[in-house]
Amino acid sequence: MAHTRAYRQGQLLAxxxxxxxxxDYLEHDDTVVWxxxxxxxxxxxxxxxxxxGLHELAVEDAVGPHQRPKLDHYASHMFLVGHAVQLARDxxxxxxxxxxxxxxxxxxxxxxxxxxxxLGPVLAxxxxxxxxxxxxxxxxxxxxxDVLVDGYFDAVGTFDDYYERVSEExxxxxxxxxxxxxxxxxxxxxxxQFHRHVVPMREAVSGLMRRELGVVxxxxxxxxxxxxxxxxxxxxxxxxxRELVGTIVETNLSLRDYRLNTVVKQVTSWAAxxxxxxxxxxxxGMNVPYPGSGQQHGVVVATGLVVGLSVAxxxxxxxxxxx
Length: 323
Prior knowledge:
Blueprint: E1 2-8, E2 11-15, H1 22-26, E3 31-38, H2 42-52, H3 56-63, E4 70-73, E5 78-88, E6 93-103, E7 107-112, H4 120-127, H5 137-169, H6 178-208, H7 221-284, H8 296-319
Parallel strand pairs: 3-7
Antiparallel strand pairs: 1-2, 1-3, 4-5, 5-6, 6-7
Helix pairs in contact: 4-5, 5-7, 6-7, 7-8
């Protein structure tokens, strides 16, 4: 599936034309062409690679899986790799959709690895600022990055809300259920994966802003700087959430140890109280003569010792808050 657009002097000239016509539009020096392809194969990119001079290594990366965010430089173009993210809070699953871009002087080829990242928001972002369209490829690439990075804030917000709720639950009287602990661990995995795919975007965006490359026009620098600032904010927010997670883990372990110690103290205290009557009755139950054996006052003494020592131990343990 390919979506094509051609701009001449900042105005939309044509849309939805065949990929075969790309070279015809590029014959005019004032024309910029944008081609978007979803889930392509190597054969799908062969024609564009031949017409636009796409490097074979970049084409291989565009159809291959699991590329990290990066910005590669080739003789006639650059190759950018980014990721759209979608975080499902209920399942704690982080969806990563790779989005690649071949960036030429007067053409842009975007490759989406899945329909999960829709082209509609990018087109809407482009159409919302027609006054910037005359900047050509630089503006089209900005619209793509702006939509990608805005999606990061939704994921960070989900992580932040979830761990704020967890931080409150660990202080409740009821410990976290095993199923909830598994979900917690899966969210931590998703957070690590998210951090691994967001941090390199800072270098990729800053690489595009290098003036010697000529990709970003002077009028577009504030817009790219805004995207760069958003990436920095996402990185800082992600680091803050990771620190919160580390604190929650340490606090949870401390609380578990505290609750365990409390239970142990209570059990030990009751065991000590129970041991007193056992000791007394065991002594008086011996089959040997002892003071008060077979006499009424012996029963009174034994009962008094059991009750008195048990009450004394109970009061001592209560004063120490062991019971």
